[in-house]
Amino acid sequence: MPNASKRKSSQKKQPPQRQRRQPGLESRMTPLPEYLRPHDQGSGKLRGRVAIVTGGDSGIGRAVSVAFAQEGADVVIVYKDEHDDAAETKKRVEQFGGRAITLPGDIGRPAFCRKIVSETIRKFGAIHILINNAAEQHPKKNFADIETNDLLATYRTNILAMFHLTQEALPHLKKHKHATIVNTTSVTAYRGSPGLVDYSSTKGAIVSFTRSLSGMLAKDGIRVNAVAPGPIWTPLIPATFPADKVAKFGADVPMGRAGQPWEVATCFVFLASEDANYITGQVLHPNGGETING
What is the pTM of this model? Predict the structure, then answer.
């Protein structure tokens, strides 16, 4: 059996790279993130369901969209303006037999959240699953350097949009048995991140949002859970950090590597399915072995 140092050194590493736009383009990453599960076909555990996935064009959102299609769901792919990435995700969803539409726009605007819901109902007639996943981040070495515009944008995208979209979707979720909401938080909500104070604080808010909303909606039969990824190889990474830091991304967790989007998507499939019928108000932690609240 190889020793730990050999196992760690054999893990995939990404070369230095940088993208000059937020939230980044998956098509420009090297290597490309792995969003397909090793087994291509699911078991139909989401058959007949309609899911809205924000940030669904790439990264974790793409992996979730495709995994849901593998399990029989139709998917509404919500994204900002990464049209080529969104088109690729839609193509993959359809290859697995799912129906899909793409909706570009700013989820931080309540009017766009209303449009997401109205277009979903117009196209598919129902909403069974809401995945609040989209996010942005703007690292700063010094607290005093956090700019008001970036602070407001981070809160608007990461947490306020969850309020707006959930409010719009809720009347439709209440119509269906086993309706679910899954929110993307982060390992930074639990251990903090000195260079991402504003981002980390929004992720902490998402944990509280999840726990509080789950208690409120339990009487309606709607489960609300969250996923707190650790270092995952998504477009947000080269779009956020300098090239030398990107090259080392994920190396500091016990498993010695960044996770792939499909390794997170399986958590969303579980929480969105009836396999998790007795789970609400909880957070799953695909983070490469970092102990959180242990």
Answer: 0.87
Out of 35, 79, 190, 199, which one is annotated catalytic? 199
* Choices 3.60.15.10, 3.30.1330.40, 3.40.50.720, 3.90.1180.10: CATH for 50-284: 3.40.50.720
CA geometry: angle 282, 212, 134, nearest 5 deg: 70
Beta bridge partners of 183: 132, 226
Confidence of residue 279 (pLDDT cuts 50, 70, 90): very high
Catalytic site residue 199?
A: yes
Residue-range domain boundaries for the chain: 50-284
Residue 29 predicted with pLDDT over 70: no
- Provide the pLDDT for residue 205: 98
**Tens digits of residue pLDDT in 100-111:** 999 999 999 999
